[in-house]
Amino acid sequence: MVEIPDSLRSVFSATVRQRDEEYVVEVPSGEIAHDAVSPGTTYRVAVFESSPTTEGGERNHRSSDRSQRTSHPPEPPVEEGEIRDVTIETVGDQGDGIAKVERGYVVIVPDAQPGDEPTIEIEQVQQNVAFASIVDPDPRTL
Q1: What phi and psi, each to the nearest 5 degrees, are found at residue 106?
Q2: Which residues of the chain fall short of a pLDDT of 50?
Q3: Please, what are the domains in the chain?
Q4: 130 — phi, psi (to 5°)?
Q5: What pTM does this model have?
């Protein structure tokens, strides 16, 4: 399993494109709008190859010819209305709790502090982040 550092600011999918003699990864505008990244700032980037799966969850074995590959961002690992138990790992710039679930996907939880283990309901899902509310607070914080 890949260790996700507390300093993780963003997770998104993008396609590497060639532009003249350089290769470019485009950052979605939502990352700028949500202050995950800022233009002109240098970031450390991890790159993972997208591996689509079949409906049964098995890996597709595709041709090694990279020109035949199509890029589809992975679906978020949560759904609106889903109830889950999470651990709040850190606090974001706006003071909200941040939990990470499968694949390092970020869930923002207002009124939560690092170490809290609340039960949450996912209220809004975006490609790279979800927003949730606490439905059952961590009993240790009552």
Answers
A1: -95, 135
A2: 1, 53-54, 57, 59-68
A3: 83-141 (2.40.50.140)
A4: -125, 155
A5: 0.53
